[in-house]
User: Fold Glucose 1-dehydrogenase 4 from Nocardia macrotermitis.
Amino acid sequence: MAIEVDLSGSVVLVTGGVRGVGAGISRVFLDAGATVVTCARRPGDAPVESSGRTAEYLPCDVRDGDAVTALVDAIVARYGRLDHVVNNAGGAPFAPAATASKNFHSKIVELNLLAPLLVSQAANAVMQTQETGGSIVMVSSVSGHRPSPGSAAYGAAKAGIDSLVSSLAIEWAPKVRINSVIVGMVHTESSHLHYGDQDGIDAVGATVPLGRLAAPEEIGRCALFLSSPLASYVTGGTLLAHGGGERPAFLDAATVNETAAAPH
Assistant:
């Protein structure tokens, strides 16, 4: 798919941008002509490349405030500016809330809520001094807007992200726009850990109205739109990227004709 947005000359930081959804986001911004800097605790298995261009990788634990400040300082020292941030780093393993430790819950909230706030604070400090300001996109999740059994702390943190966006959009306007992409299920190299083999992945995809899981680049294009001049009047918003969501369970359980009128 041709990229019509041109971000040539802009500098973008994608946290967790070396694998999975993050790598897809990085590739889309490379396609749009941006200089892309990725960060993660460990590099990916291969450099992130697209359109004959390569994203730069810098190591950073985004939960560490001092490391985040050093990261942003390094980007500004090298490129002279920071125009866009995509806060993608996050995630959580399956763990029942009743038995997960206090330390486990704390680390999940730290990674998925506090770390994006730290990165955003550091980026905002730079963007407020730039004539053209900047934009921040949070990668949120449908887990923050529906029950998230087995990842309750993660879902709560993602709900917090979307609340945070609405507040920061007011505090940091007009120089900085901030929005979130509420992401559904995505097909990555780790999908088998969540859904099983290819048959399981296909079966899960069939439950989505669009009939499949998203590709990482599709999430990247949502982030690109929110970062671009096309979204110049969009801030404090959320963009749903979930393929239509989930079919209500009662529709499969009901014994009446499917053409019957829906309840009011």
